[in-house]
Amino acid sequence: MANRLAQVAGHITNTHGRGLLAGEVAIITGTFCGIGKSTALLFAKEGAKVVASDIDQKKLDQVVSEIKATGGDAIGVPGDVGADDFPKKIVEATVKQYGKINHIVNNAGFTFDKMLHTTPDDAFDIILKIHVRAPFRLIRQAAPHFRIKGESNENRSIINVSSTSGLHGNVGQANYAAAKSAVIGLTKTIAKEWGPYGVRANTVAFGLIQTRLTAPKEEGAVIEIDGKKVALGIPGAPRGASAPDKDAYPHIPLRKAGTPDEAASAVLFLASPLASYVSGHTLEVTGGAGI
User: Fold this and answer.
1) Is 176 a catalytic residue?
2) pLDDT in tens, 171-180
3) Which of the residues 176, 197, 249, 277 is marked catalytic?
């Protein structure tokens, strides 16, 4: 126990700086807003060298600039996570800049909600492509930097973002629920295959976190997919992370939605040496919903 505490303390106070991830390198996808942005900022605050990625170059640059303005170290690699050349592009850029990879956080994604009987093939396929195929291809590309033979004291992990929809299903989300369920199986397989190399793999399943995906649909947030505009949000959703009265979220014991910063803290825990013996786990971050 004393040796483990000393090792954790070493991470916090090592010569690269202070923080739980001091001197470590983390690839984080989907960083221009919401959970991804909060995770990138928090990882940088905890000493990580952050490789941020998003499809929007301008907004990605803003996140990188924000990290650097607070003394952090980061680069931005723009691109569509679903593109065939993306994994090679981001892994090569990371290794060229920092020489290694410690963590991959597969956060990029969106929803394309429809009732199952009205869901066309393209709406189903694109969600699986972005939420399952893209993380798989990025992890596979980075394999040589994780499957390292011999003893290593490096803290290394894979964190895939799932959802309570993947655990319990959800009305209007047959595609999203299927994808978020699949990523849990992918993560457990990585934990078993890469565990002998000292690599941990975990999933974080978020409940109601206040992002553009859970904002009121009436606010009109949209994204464009293959030339088609897809509306984001939940019809009639309460506004704000904490509603004026506790009855706005009766299904959540904590009676509030989570914030992106609260979500990012859970991701940090899984990446940090505090979770050094946690692997193959799905951490539910729900405010108590679903218990």
Assistant:
1) yes
2) 999 999 999 9
3) 176
Q: Give the contacts of 251 (CB within 8 A, at least 6 positions apart).
A: 289
pLDDT in tens, 183-207: 999 999 999 999 999 999 999 999 9
What is the reported pTM?
0.87
CATH superfamily of 22-209+257-285: NAD(P)-binding Rossmann-like Domain (3.40.50.720)
206, β-bridge pairs: 163, 285
What are the sequence ranges of the domains in the chain? 22-209+257-285
